[in-house]
Amino acid sequence: MKVLLDESAPRIIQRRLSDAAIRTVQEMGWAGIKNGDLLERAEREFDIFVTADKNLRHQQNLSRRRLAIIVLPSNQIPIVLNLLTEIEQAISRAVPGTYVEIVLPNDV
After folding, report:
1. In what order do the strands lie in the sheet with 99-101?
2. Distance between CA atoms of residues 41 and 90, nearest Å
3. Burial of 98 from C-beta contacts in 10 A (0-12 / 13-18 / 19+)
4. Spatial separation of the C-alpha atoms in residues 105 and 108, rounded to whole Å
5. Per residue, what are the HEC states of 53-103?
6. Phi, psi values for residue 73, rounded to 5°
7. Distance between CA 20 and CA 3 in Å, rounded?
8. Is 14 helix (H, G, I), strand (E, B) or coil?
9. In which element (H, E) is residue 49 found?
10. 7: buried, middle or exposed (CB in 10 Å: 19+, 13-18, 0-12)?
């Protein structure tokens, strides 16, 4: 599975989950591209899009997207580090066209 990290997702995910094929929006030269165009580009090359943009599903029609979209509860590095296992599991279970929000545990 090829994973694209949005600008809003911390790059620490890429470094810590080095077994996964993860690229960043910045590495692709797509920084600053609006969500609709970004998702179209991502669909051509990736299977999964990881973002911290909780408004994405309200701003975009995701019903016909082939990408699996995983939404982080935060882009704060300490929180993301605590959720690496959940992020890795979401990536490994991702199904094309699905939208998954990782929930912030109550104890964080």
Report:
1. 21-24, 2-5, 48-51, 68-71, 99-101
2. 22
3. middle
4. 6
5. CCCHHHHCCCCCCCCEEEECCCCCHHHHHHCHHHHHHHHHHCCCCCEEECC
6. -75, -15
7. 8
8. helix
9. strand 48-51
10. middle
Token code pair at residue 74:
């935060």
Tokens 């943009």 label which residue? 53
Q: Cβ neighbours of residue 81 under 8 Å, at least 6 residues apart?
A: 12, 16
Number of C-alpha atoms within 13 angstroms, CB side, residue 13?
35
pLDDT in tens, the chain (108 residues): 899 999 999 999 999 998 879 999 999 999 999 888 999 999 999 999 999 998 877 777 677 888 999 999 999 999 999 999 999 999 999 999 899 999 987 755
5: helix, strand or coil: strand
**Tokens 């690229």 sit on residue:** 23
The answer to whether 91 and 70 are in contact (CB under 8 A) is yes
